[in-house]
Amino acid sequence: MGFDAVWVHDAMMGRRTSAAYCPITTLASIAGRTNRIRLCTGILTPQVRNPVQLANQWSTLYELSDHRAIMGVGMGAGTPTLIKREFEGLAVLKHDTALSPAALYAQRGKVFDECLDVMRQLWQKDKLSYHGKYFRFNEITLGHARPKEVPPVLIASGIYFPKEPGGPVHHGWKDSIAGRWLPGNLNRVVDYGDGWITVHLSPEEYSKNWKKIKGIGAEKKPEKSYIPAFNCFVNVNQDPRKGWEGVRDHLEDFHGPPIRDDVVDRWAVAGPPEQIAARLNEYIEAGVRIFQIVIGSPDQFGQMRRIAERVLPLIRR
Q1: Domain assignment of residue 133, yes or no
Q2: pTM over 0.85
Q3: Euclidean distance between CA atoms 159 and 203, whole angstroms
Q4: Which residues lie across from 15 on neighbouring strands?
Q5: Strands 180-182 and 136-140
Q6: Is 134 contained in some domain?
Q7: How far are the Cα atoms of 68, 121, 142, 260 from residue 124, in angstroms, in the given order?
């Protein structure tokens, strides 16, 4: 159909959908039946895994797929119950500490950063001794599985907090930030990644924040360039309202109702093919080079074909 990549989600312990399957195993299966298409996670949550094992699994996928894998990572979102459950299952080496899941969750950003640091160093060094706050080990090597180059990593940062609580509302929602998009820690993109992926932004907001990341990169790592990516839900329909409703219904099916209208407004790119292409081209003008297109409809393959045949030819490549 002309798509460049396939994306899989990561929702261990959290969803009654195919997102509950292990994303790395799923991508390995797809890799074995394809030759060119990129294999992406959008997003993988490393902080609820052991980073040494994850580094080994991903480098194996990266090498066996002939370097087609792109790791999109983020801290994730969801209900407080879901996040508590994920951190209770977290395989962090606590080393004589009494960290409870609740305390560990409060430090989730630091755990996330350390996971990424461990993986990147294991991919680059033959042997690694690491003495962090959460992970400590001596002379670990990936051996023959160490990749010939560091696999690209897209860091997810930024999310919209709706005006009222609803289905997929971030566990950090509170009145003081209702109705606002917050960027998160954009320094992570430069410190631990090769690109940025985000959601819920207008093209103008995307451009503004992408310039911030490029500024951080120019200061910290001037020799390196970064990849800008964007996640959106698409529904091709001659009636823009029906396309919008299709995205809303799909979000409610996945996350649970109610999905607030302002969330759908920020997540959906819906309507006739020409309208969708015009909107995606606005994001390209804002800097986006990779789209993670999520199909906002139960008719997954039908919508894929509509996008391939009627939208992609209108996209600026």
Answers
A1: yes
A2: yes
A3: 14
A4: none
A5: unpaired
A6: yes
A7: 18, 5, 10, 44
In this predicted model, what pLDDT tens digit does every residue of 106-155 receive, in sequence order? Answer: 788 898 999 999 999 999 999 999 999 889 999 999 999 999 999 999 99
76 falls within a domain: yes
Tokens of 255: 């996350």
DSSP β-ladder status, 180-182 and 159-161: antiparallel
Whether the CB-CB separation of 221 and 252 falls below 8 Å is answered with no
Q: Say if residue 228 is preceded by a cis peptide, omega within 30 of 0.
A: no
Q: For residue 75, give its domain range.
A: 5-235+290-296
Euclidean distance between the first and the last CA atom of the chain, given in angstroms as a whole number: 15
Please tell me the total count of domains within the chain: 1
What distance lies between CA 261 and its chain's CA centroid?
A: 23
CATH of the domain at 51: 3.20.20.30
Percent of the chain with pLDDT over 90: 77
Closest CA to 135 of 153, 116, 157, 152: 116
How far apart, in whole angstroms, are the C-alpha atoms of residue 64 and residue 147?
A: 10
Answer whether residue 228 is part of any domain.
yes
Q: Quick check: 27 and 61 in contact, CB under 8 A? A: yes
